[in-house]
Structure to design on (284 residues):
């Protein structure tokens, strides 16, 4: 028998393929990624952040601003403008108001301000239920040092609606029939709405001063600073809550048809007891 052989053409092809496979690399080297140009990142020097901010870095339009408003407003708004007059970047690291009622508005921190660039920090102060003069602060920390902005809010009672003499007399007649009439209809604008959400002195200015401190105080409205009877905390609380039947003094407690909560009455009594001490000694 003849051995089974391989056709010469097929054998030559197999030898040629093996040569190609042997000559080719097992795996090609990965191509290098293209170079990406990135701008350098500014890294602030934090060694001076707890020092006072020196002059010649930031120039402000004012570092203390005053807003005058009335107690009908719920917020006071401020805007502070500045320019970076230094020769380098200034990085705002932290902006912290002095209390929770003040909110600062600015770009996300850290905030980098280039040399020669201008910026702005706005602030909103919640003044609902407050009266008098309030002073707030915004503490600023930068990589060049620390500084502070001062916010002054002067809050005065909102102006009262004007009444003609005929309107005034009509209100008196209504109150003569029903002492709680001051909390109803058009009268509620002055005797209910102004005191909503207020306590202590602010509540007194809204609900009590309108009658007892008025330049045109009626003769039947007593002067609280010149009472002829002894006063104390219970005295004020009782009169505020329940009024005096048969007079024009209404009852302010909600349980008696008035607009004030127990907490408001307690705060108002505490304020009056401290602000208007008794001129008459208690009975022995």
């Amino acid at each position: 028998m003849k051995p089974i052989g391989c056709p010469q053409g097929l054998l030559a092809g197999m030898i040629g393929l093996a040569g190609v496979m042997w000559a080719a690399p097992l795996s090609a080297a990965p191509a290098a990624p293209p170079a990406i140009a990135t701008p350098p990142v500014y890294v602030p020097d934090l060694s001076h952040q707890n020092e006072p901010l020196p002059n010649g870095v930031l120039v402000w339009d004012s570092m203390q601003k005053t807003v005058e408003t009335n107690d009908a407003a719920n917020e006071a708004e401020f805007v502070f403008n500045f320019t970076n007059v230094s020769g380098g970047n200034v990085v705002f690291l932290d902006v912290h108001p002095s209390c929770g009622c003040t909110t600062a508005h600015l770009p996300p921190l850290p905030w980098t301000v280039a040399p020669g660039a201008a910026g702005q920090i706005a602030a909103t102060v919640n003044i609902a239920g407050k009266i008098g003069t309030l002073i707030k602060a915004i503490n600023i920390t930068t990589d060049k040092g620390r500084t502070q902005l001062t916010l002054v809010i002067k809050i005065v009672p909102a102006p009262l609606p004007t009444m003609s003499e005929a309107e005034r007399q009509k209100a008196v007649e209504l109150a003569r029939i029903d002492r709680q009439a001051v909390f109803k209809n058009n009268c509620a604008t002055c005797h209910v709405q102004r005191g909503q959400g207020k306590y202590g002195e602010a509540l007194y200015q809204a609900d009590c001063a309108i009658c007892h401190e008025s330049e045109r105080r009626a003769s039947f409205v007593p002067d609280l600073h010149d009472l002829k009877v002894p006063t104390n905390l219970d005295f004020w609380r009782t009169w505020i809550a329940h009024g005096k039947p048969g007079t024009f003094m209404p009852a302010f407690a909600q349980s008696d048809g008035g607009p004030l909560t127990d907490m408001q009455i307690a705060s108002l009594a505490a304020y009056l007891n401290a602000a208007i001490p008794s001129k008459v000694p208690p009975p022995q």
The longest helix spans residues 8-23. Residues 165-275 form a domain with the Cytochrome Bc1 Complex; Chain D, domain 2 fold (CATH 1.10.760).
